[in-house]
Design a protein that fits this description.
With about 170 residues, the protein is α/β, with parallel strands linked by helices. The protein has one domain: Leucine-rich repeat, LRR (right-handed beta-alpha superhelix) (Alpha-Beta Horseshoe), CATH 3.80.10.10. The chain has seven helices and five strands; from the N terminus they run H-H-H-E-H-E-H-E-H-E-H-E. Strands 1-2-3-4-5 form a five-stranded parallel sheet, covered by helices on one side. Strand 1, helix 4 and strand 2 form a beta-alpha-beta unit. Helix 4 packs parallel to helix 5 and helix 6 runs parallel beside helix 7. The radius of gyration is 17 Å and the shape is elongated. The chain starts with 8 loop residues before the first helix and ends with a strand.
Amino acid sequence: MSRLEDLPGEILMLIFEYMDVEDVWTIFFNMTVRFNILVFDSRLRLTVNTSKLGKSKFDEFCLSLAERNCNNIYSLTLSNNYFRYPQIRQFLFNTSFIYFQSLYSLTLIDINYGELMKTTKQIKQLTSLNHLHINTHEIFDDKQLMDAAQALLDQPKIHVLDINFHEVN
């Protein structure tokens, strides 16, 4: 009978890539020295979707996972969903997008104008960022909408830009 620990590292890393970083961290970190090495392997591409995390788990992500795994994070979703708390503001307070040099896809939900302008300045330095998804109903002023749209369109490395500014009546 085989055990998970017996699988080659490449297979384990492929399994990790199908999991959310929170699950990889919770399940495999501190299991064995070998798993710790794999969790931090620079070839690992992790997905992070914080939109459903509670505040304490999100704070833990910002303070520890982001610092330790930021070079492995390939896809990141942050949400200011009004049912929760301002994740994007908290993220920008605790860290910077500049540290996420392997980031390929970024999704920001319910981002406000100030956060968006700060983010657009930081992500210009991300050479791997290819997909940017913005979904918000938090920007109302026509000038702010124009400035935000211009800042988003002025991202030289972005190949896929998905902007959804909800219409307010």
